[in-house]
Amino acid sequence: MTRRSPGGTARRAVPLSAAAITRCARELIEDDGLESLSMRRLAERLDTQAASLYRHVHNKEELVDLVADSLFGDFEPTVEHGPDDDWRSYLTRVATTYRAFLLDHKDAERVVAGRFAVGKNLVRLMEPMLQTLRTAGLNERDSAYVLYLVVVHVQGFVLHEKAPLSASNAAGLSRELVLTTTRDLLEHFPDEDFPRVREAAPYLAEPGLDARFRYGLDLLLDGLALRIAESGAA
Fold first, then answer.
1. Closest Cα partner for 208 from 178, 184, 185, 176?
2. What residues contact 56, with CB distance under 8 A and at least 6 apart?
3. Count of Cβ atoms closer than 10 Å to residue 82 Cβ
4. CA gap 204, 226 in Å, rounded
5. What is the C-alpha to C-alpha distance for residues 90 and 214, in angstroms, rounded to an integer?
6. 3-state secondary structure at position 2
7. Assuming Cys at both sites, which of 20, 113, 137, 214 could form a disulfide with 155, CB separation 3.0 to 4.6 Å?
């Protein structure tokens, strides 16, 4: 069916389906952010009425579930083990590539964080991680808990990483300049009252986050190594 745009130019409407609506929702989020997502705006983009969307998607929350699973469908970590691979290098690779993926897609971390929308794409990613942890010697409960912790570490870190540091950062001041200003403020607190804050100021306001991410991940995996060693000795 052909419709007319507001300018009078003929254009062909996209056949409606859950997949087409999900694709359009992702495009809208990439263009304007998660706050822009609404059934009305989707209908405008798809050249239809909002009521027509509900024949394929029950509500906005279900749509966000579909968007989350669609995102997982695009995430392609190296899931095969190399000849010298072990559980630790595998989980490190998955975590670092997942962080990079979330950083590369607008508001992706907000779409997936805290959402357990089970679909074929999420299950496809969970299976090799769980298999790796079971092979390492963890039971089914501990494997599930570790998977959760790794995912939450990545998602939570990226949520922090993309959030504005302050009103100045939100208003357009660069992250680096905000951190430089913050470090200067911390270093000028009275030394007799806040000596440890002044000492730590360069690290509290360190601009690069790669080292912080890896430090937290290593701490998590260090604890996991101890648990695996304990389970092997039991």
1. 176
2. 16, 17, 18, 21
3. 10
4. 29
5. 14
6. strand
7. 113
Q: What angle do CA 110, 113, 115 make, to 5 degrees?
A: 115
| Residue/partner pairs of 147-152 with CB below 8 Å, 24 or more apart | 149/220, 150/91, 150/94, 150/95, 150/217, 150/220, 151/98
**Ranges of H-type helices in the chain:** 18-32, 39-46, 50-53, 60-74, 87-104, 108-112, 120-136, 140-162, 167-170, 175-187, 195-204, 210-233
Q: Give the max Cα distance, the chain.
A: 76
Q: Which residue is it, tokens 């950083």?
A: 103
Phi and psi torsions of 10, nearest 5°: -70, 140
Dihedral sign, Cα of residue 210, residue 216, residue 217, residue 218: positive
Sequential pLDDT tens for the chain (234 residues): 344 444 444 444 567 899 999 999 999 999 999 999 999 999 999 999 999 999 999 999 999 999 999 999 999 876 555 545 689 999 999 999 999 999 999 999 999 988 887 888 999 999 999 999 999 999 999 999 999 999 999 999 999 998 888 888 877 888 888 888 888 888 888 888 999 999 999 998 888 899 999 999 999 999 999 989 987 754
Closest of 76, 66, 86 to residue 17, by C-alpha: 66
Give dist(CA 68, CA 70) in Å, integer.
Answer: 5
Domains of the chain: 2-57 (1.10.10.60), 73-233 (1.10.357.10)
